[in-house]
Amino acid sequence: MARRIVITSGKGGVGKTSIVANLGAKLSRAGNRVVVMDLDIGLNNLDVACGVENKVLYDIIDVIEGRCRPAQALLEVEGYPNLWVMPSAHTLDKNYVNGQNVRLVVEKLNGICDYILMDCPAGIELGFHRAVAAAEEAIVVTTPHISAVRDADRVIRLLKAYRLSSVSLVVNRARGDLMLSGEMMEIADINELLKTKIIGVIPEDDEMPLSTAAGGMVSACTQPDIAFNLLADNLLDGEGELYDVTVKYRGFFGAIKRGLRRRV
After folding, report:
1. What is the pLDDT of residue 48?
2. pLDDT tens-digit profile of 156-165?
3. Looking at the 3D structure of the chain, how many domains does it have?
């Protein structure tokens, strides 16, 4: 049976889609068969983030309406033989699809993969409930900004009604220099406010938007790459550590780096 995990957020623009793509890539590199599903109907970008947008023949709507089998709609991501994308529809009215439709698709994928990561639309409208209804676990993505954290808190409260086996948190776009100077919420503060296990901290880095725009995963040996490896380890066994975004800004030379970063 596959682990069915919905990746959601209280607001848009927190980098949820890039989290889904790169986490899927890391899990697949660890030997797992992974399907990433785009459930943001009408505003879907997961196929772009994974670099398969030009290969789409069928999408999730074709599966729901019986025009193809689930396996026919899956697109293998180049360089990741154990990672497939289930693309979404660009034009269909999103109200056409309900939670039962999504659950049926997920159930059909259950036997052919180890992980199903569902990219949920931002917010708490119909698309949110449609995606969460098909999941057994949830990861909430936020950034270290008070507005995003407040929205994440609202989402976490709603998720409790679904009796999921686990709800965890990923903090994206974290800047260690701003955390040390008191201009950005620290990880410990977010943990205290949301009272939800944090399984990943992803640094703000030019590598992230560049790789996403180019339709690919983060480059090896970069800071985001290391952070995603730790996130995948935490998801696999729950024993991994969190990436420390502040370590390179500590001490005498770290203070110099903080000063240089602020001037850029």
Report:
1. 92
2. 999 999 999 9
3. 1
